[in-house]
Each structure stands twice: as C-alpha cells, then as structure tokens.
Design brief:
Oligomer: single chain
Largest sheet: 2 strands, antiparallel
Number of strands: 2
Number of domains: 1
Helix content: 25-40%
Distance between the termini: 36 Å
Low-confidence stretches: none
Length: 94
C-alpha cells in the first residue's frame, strides 16, 4: 500500500531501461501472507503518509479499512489471506 495508490492491477508494466542494457527478463511470484484485522490496521498506521494525516483523517481512514474488512467475505474469519505479487527484473549488458 502506497500513498499514491500504487498497487498491482494485473498489468505487467516493465521498467524502461535503455542502452547499454539488452532486453529484460521478468519474473512474477504470487504469494499469500495470512494476517489478521489487527495486523492490517497496524500496517495502515505504520505508513508515513498516515502519520501526516490529521487525527480526524486517521479515524476516517481506519474506519474505511474496517468497513472494507466487514464487507469482504474473505476477511470474515480469524485469518485473512493477504495477497501479494512480487515482480523482479533482470537487465544484462551485452
């Protein structure tokens, strides 16, 4: 989660790398980190841009996160599967 809303949208946008590097290689690995509602709230609170919000904005943000967790079927239990995609790139000089 980033302040600019950057997250994986299922589109593979490879970085633009020019000379002297050749064509790149890409690898994507999908994985799941089991977590809890409390841990998700802690992750939100740990972001630097969250710390810059006013107390009211912080309350609104945490309430919005809780609202999403309440409505999403996968977050109904004790453990919530938090999905990640790790993308790696390799560019080699010829």
């Amino acid at each position: 989660m980033r302040a600019d809303g950057d997250h994986y949208r299922g589109v593979d946008d490879d970085p633009a790398v020019g000379e002297p590097f050749g064509a790149g290689e890409r690898s994507s690995i999908e994985w799941v980190q089991p977590t809890t509602r409390s841990a998700i709230a802690d992750m939100v609170r740990s972001r630097s841009y969250f710390a810059l919000l006013s107390p009211g904005e912080r309350r609104q943000t945490l309430a919005a996160v809780e609202d999403v967790l309440e409505r999403h079927p996968e977050s109904a239990g004790e453990s919530i599967p938090l999905l990640y995609v790790t993308a790696s790139y390799r560019f080699v000089r010829p």
